[in-house]
Amino acid sequence: MSRELPAPVPRLTVITLGVSDIRASIAFYTALGFARRLKATGEAVAFFDTGGPVLALFPWDQLAADANLADKPRPSTFRGMTLAWNCRTREEVDAVLEFAVGEGAGLLKAAHETDYGGYSGYFTDPDGHPWEVVVAPGIEVGDDRRVHLAE
């Protein structure tokens, strides 16, 4: 006879990106202003405070092996996910995109009006992970750097 267990509390705590050159990726994310934590891990893995879930960087091949997935071929097209940097204003979107590109990001799509009343653009990190920089209706960014969603 099985006992019913309560459902666990869902939470997203860490987003781990597979990277080709961890040293270069650490430098890139540090240059974007994310604070590195647990530096004692050296270049084995890197953790960054994002104001929400932790961003982790881990060597691409090791992350694939850990997840029991093939390392190759590495996708050079859309990977089915994006990361987001929500902003308070359109001017902040423009400033973040300009700053990221100045720090070595690739510009995927210039900032533009969206069909849902927002304003967004895209950049990529050194491994091609896409980031949307966006201000969107119903999503506010608080002083705590966290997004607050309308009901």
TrEMBL record:
InterPro entries per record: Glyas_Bleomycin-R_OHBP_Dase, Glyas_Fos-R_dOase_dom, VOC_core
UniProt cross-references to Pfam families, sorted A to Z: Glyoxalase
Protein name: Lactoylglutathione lyase
Example of a GO MF term: lyase activity
Keyword hit for Lyase: yes
Keywords recorded for this protein, A-Z: Lyase
Occurrences of domain VOC (ranges): 11-136
PROSITE patterns on file: VOC
